[in-house]
Design brief:
Helix content is 22%, strand content 28%. The longest helix has 14 residues. The protein starts with 46 loop residues before the first strand and ends in an 18-residue tail after the last strand. It contains nine helices and 17 strands. A hairpin with a 7-residue loop joins strand 12 and strand 13. Bound molecules: 2-oxopentadecyl-CoA and ligand U53. The ligand CCOC(=O)c1cnc2ccc(OC)cc2c1SCCC#N binds next to strand 2, strand 7, strand 16 and strand 17.
Length: 389
């Protein structure tokens, strides 16, 4: 398969696969800032760049609508991600973010937003090296402008703006295979509302299974099982940061979170992210932690339902409570908050609970990528400690 654009980029190339003589680390060295292209890349005549001020209600609504109508769909076009405006504000304004990395393309005449791509800064550890990278996300070209080679221009422009901040690496995920994944992960799904999932056509009634038997199979208790299980609060940030840094040190690729990062990425935000912890009733020590982010999807072409309420497993740490019990408590909370499904990737130690908690494997894969950073061999999902949104 010819990758006319990606073959020009400093990423692992398929032709290099198996060549273990190539050194681990940056593929290209930084260029002096004076030599970084100062002006934006050229767009086709009718279009212009716009830096999207996500704080502006009007601009945020335009971005929300573009993504709601044109962002990622599953292979059977059953669902399309429907990131909320408050989720976008959370995802795009972490500590140290750059407004210039929130990049839109609009039609000069109508001012209509027709494409989008974003970056946010993140410190990512790869093996023993902490590298400041851009996490690239929300690449979207309007359905009517597809297959016009707009994506490469969007990617080169965000790369240029990242370079201007003296950052030379990036991390991103995609459902498509590009040169060259550092890991390939699988989605797993735990039904919370099996009747709705069957009605929309995602799940099917098992053989010799009635609907009431299926509902019973996925039933969860009303209340959580772990003593001391409670919502995370601001005062817990130092303890959760310690827990998280220690836990993530076991993975080959993982974020290098400090307290500032934890306060932004992990503290509960209504309608965006939920995080819970276990405070030992005896010692008041914080021993365990679980979190999930809230990402609804539009249900395409169903008469009875229009929105799927989905929870996505984020970071989970069990040092005293069995991970199985902690995650079952997460399912109980998600069900109590009326989620239809709890999704998880097979990253970190998730494989240890997926089958037992009645997750089923999805048919979608998620490929992880690094830009301008080579690693010796592809990672197993269990060697990955990074969840992108
Ligand atoms: C140092 C900093 C560096 C920062 C940058 C790092 C890199 C960041 C990279 C971005 C990370 C984003 C992460 C992220 O957002 C999460 S993955 C979600 C991507 N978005 C969607 O799937 C939304 C629906 N689809 C679309 O909007 C369009 O189909 C898109 C815009 C996807 C492609 O638009 P199109 O109209 O369908 O296609 P053309 O314009 O004609 O272009 C075709 C070329 O684009 C390559 N392509 C297709 N999908 C891609 C994808 N998901 N990543 C990278 N490349 C992708 C494709 O291989 C081909 O190149 P090739 O000929 O070489 O094969
Ligand atoms: C019911 C299980 O599937 C999903 O939750 C879901 C929802 N919306 C999507 C939108 C785009 C989409 O494009 C790949 C997939 C989904 C999926 S399955 C993969 C995500 C997970 N877990």
């Amino acid at each position: 398969k010819r990758h006319k654009f990606w073959e020009t980029q400093p990423v692992g190339q398929f032709k290099d696969l198996g060549d273990t003589s190539l050194p681990e680390g940056p593929i290209e060295l930084p260029t002096p800032l004076s030599e970084v292209k100062q002006e934006p890349y050229n767009l086709p005549a009718p279009y212009e760049w716009i830096t999207c001020d996500i704080d502006s209600e009007e601009m945020c609504t335009e971005v929300y609508n573009l993504l709601m109508n044109n962002y990622v769909e599953d292979d059977e076009n059953m669902f399309r991600f429907n990131y909320s405006k408050e989720f976008l504000r959370w995802a795009l304004r972490p500590p140290g973010y750059f407004k210039s990395w929130h990049i839109g393309v609009r039609v000069k005449t109508s001012k209509k937003l027709v494409a989008f791509i974003t970056g946010v800064p993140a410190r990512i550890r790869v093996c023993d090296e902490v590298v400041t990278m851009a996490e690239i996300n929300f690449l979207c070209v309007h359905k009517k402008l597809r297959s016009k080679r707009l994506a490469p221009v969007m990617i080169k422009e965000v790369t240029r703006r990242v370079h201007l901040e003296n950052i030379w690496q990036a991390a991103y995920t995609a459902g498509v295979v590009l040169p060259t994944p550092i890991a390939t992960c699988q989605y797993w799904h735990r039904s919370l509302n099996p009747k709705k999932l069957i009605d929309v056509g995602f799940s099917r009634l098992g053989a010799r299974m009635t609907m009431s038997r299926t509902i019973k199979l996925y039933k969860l208790p009303e209340s959580t099982a772990t003593p001391g299980f409670r919502k995370m609060e601001l005062r817990d940030v130092p303890a959760v940061t310690r827990l998280l840094r220690n836990y993530l040190s076991q993975f080959i690729v993982a974020p290098d979170f400090d307290e500032n990062d934890v306060e932004h990425w992990i503290l509960p935000t209504e309608n965006v992210i939920e995080s819970y912890l276990v405070e030992s009733p005896e010692t008041h020590e914080i021993t365990d932690f679980c979190s999930f982010y809230i990402l609804p999807s539009s249900i395409l072409g169903n008469q009875n339902y229009s929105i799927l309420k989905a929870a996505y497993s984020y970071y989970n740490i069990a040092t005293k409570t069995p991970l199985l019990q902690l995650m079952n408590d997460a399912l109980i909370v998600a069900k109590r908050n009326d989620f239809d499904v709890f999704n998880a990737l097979d990253v970190m130690q998730n494989e240890s609970f997926l089958k037992e908690l009645k997750f089923g494997p999805g048919d979608g894969k998620l490929h992880y990528y690094l830009y301008n950073y080579r690693i010796r061999r592809a990672l197993k999902p269990s060697e990955l400690g990074l969840v992108l949104l």
